[in-house]
Amino acid sequence: MITTLAVENYRSLSRLVVPLERLNVVTGANGTGKSSLYRALRLLADSARGGAVAALAREGGLRSTLWAGAEKPAQGAGRSGPVGLRLGFAGDDFGYAVDFGHPVPAASCFDLDPEIKRECTWAGPVLRPAALLSDRSGPSVRTRTADGEWHRSAGELRPYDSMLSEFADPQLAPDLLRLRERIRSWRFYDHVRTDADAPARSAQIGTRTPVLAHDGADLAAALQTIRETGDAAALNAAVDAAFPGSSVEITGQGGRFEVQLTQPGLLRPLGAAELSDGTLRYLLWTAALLTPRPPALLVLNEPEASLHPELLAPLAGLILTAARHTQVVVVTHATELADELERGAGPHRLGVNSVELVKDAYGQTEVAGREGPLDQPPWHWPKR
């Protein structure tokens, strides 16, 4: 489980170190940095897949994503050290940090692509020299073997490749491999589609689907998989809690699956094409949160969108059920959802880690109620 998330120089997140627990709810007014925190987690996941540089490019490149304020805004000062976007996390067993910087000027059409200047993994919650497991400085990588000796890579990494995606050798770097696979299991849900042309509204080819697709296209197959190999009772309870007396059925013909909702008083079930956006979205969250294959980390961005206020309590129940099996981060505008999670946490024997983001007078994102560095978890960045 991740216990600390650290971000530096990413949009409004000039320097942010956030403690994480089993269930985390991130709130705050518009423009306080909630989306930036969500994107920072996605960039960390992209690093394990070798896609962080491309993801930064889609955001406008490093120059567009770097914190635009001064290094010490209280003094109106500029930057005294090398400019870099730094991302990292740590848990009780492993930690990871990556430092993206500007490339060395060269005659290339890709000279705006950021380079990875430093990358480290370590054992335990805090980076220290004795705990290092792997260390990448520029193109060179060294890893600590099982007997404690250091092995330096024979080749050199390209500046845009992460050692997580390129150097996870089961013989020379088993810890790096385990960490990479753990990060690759992280799951993100942002904009599941419920528009008129959403794939979930029409029959789709169905195979066993323990993990709902990011756009919800395989909703019917995912729900049927829960019913056959997952927690069917929780699925039925979730539907009844949101729509009393209703039930979901999956019809199949010629290998194509379709969702149908049976409701009291109606003479026939409603097909997915007939459901309201809110009803369909709730069924999508049901499939995502009751997955028979829980990830190490599940991150939801604004799950309350398009939902009627009466559905927030059933949604909170789904999130609490998921948090029994996986670490969850919920980024939300809805204080009502946060309140429902607080109220429902007791029976589930879970605590809710509430993280309210605010901006200080200089435009930097901070955690509300934090008075100084001693109020945050210990964190050290690797130096270039």
UniProtKB/TrEMBL annotation:
It holds the Pfam family AAA_21. Gene3D superfamilies: P-loop containing nucleotide triphosphate hydrolases (3.40.50.300). Residues 23-338 form the ATPase AAA-type core domain. InterPro entries: ATPase_AAA_core (IPR003959), P-loop_NTPase (IPR027417), RecF-like (IPR014555). Keywords: DNA damage, SOS response. PANTHER family: DNA REPLICATION AND REPAIR PROTEIN RECF, SLR1056 PROTEIN. This is AAA family ATPase. It comes from Streptomyces ovatisporus.
